[in-house]
Design goal:
103 residues, mainly alpha, 59% helix
Length: 103
């Protein structure tokens, strides 16, 4: 059984996780989750788009979700700091696992 993530119970959390994973990947060159999990977030967010609410929702377009890419996002300081906080909470084993899963 896979780990339950915060966005599994609260679809609004799909937005910050999409943004943090995009920032980590495109700006820091780091994976904070396997690509398959990022793709799942994009699909779920696309599916629940009309129902989710978040202060940063306007930073994401439906095209980003369809292509599973946050390449063109303009990240706020809040997103940057949240991502860095999450990265610092990861163990070396988790970082290795994410790198391996993305190859």
């Amino acid at each position: 059984m896979s780990k339950v993530m915060p966005y599994d119970d609260n679809k609004d959390m799909l937005i910050p996780w999409f943004l943090m994973a995009s920032y980590a990947y495109y700006e820091l060159g780091m994976n904070i989750m396997p690509d398959s999990e990022f793709d799942r977030i994009a699909r779920e967010l696309d599916k629940h788009w009309d129902d989710v609410e978040h202060m940063h929702k306007q930073l994401i377009t439906k095209e980003m979700l369809v292509t599973s890419s946050g390449y063109s996002i303009e990240y706020t300081n809040m997103i940057k700091h949240a991502t860095m906080s999450y990265i610092h909470s990861l163990t070396a084993r988790q970082v290795y696992k994410f790198k391996k899963a993305c190859k």
